[in-house]
Design a protein that fits this description.
about 60 residues, alpha+beta, SH3 type barrels, 1 helix
Amino acid sequence: MDKEIELAIKRGHYVFVKSMDGSTLTGIPEPSNDPEKLKMRTSLGHFWIPMDEVSHVSRLITIK
């Protein structure tokens, strides 16, 4: 899961994140100084998600 997030940050890809409670969030992950939290930029603003609450991450790749 961490590798997918690192690749998405490096390449500017969107990610789909599902949390333990079933809620989902789609956005662009950003580098964070705190390795225990995932920083996401979405259309609704910036979010910090504790990594222990993340159950699934999928990278969304646009084919040009």
